[in-house]
Amino acid sequence: MLMAKAPVSGRVKTRLCPPLAPAEAARLYACMLGDAAEEISSVGRIARYLFLDRPVAANAMRGEPFSSFERLPQRGKDLGEKMWDAAATAFRRGARRVVIVGADCPSLSAGTVRRAFLELSSGASVVFGPSVDGGYYLVGLSSPDERLFLGFRWSTAVVLRNAAARCRILSAPFSFLPPGLDVDTGEDLLALREWVGTHARPACPRTREWITGFLGPGGGGFRGPTERKPGPRRGSRSRLGG
Question: What's the CATH code of the domain at 128?
Answer without folding.
Answer: 3.90.550.10
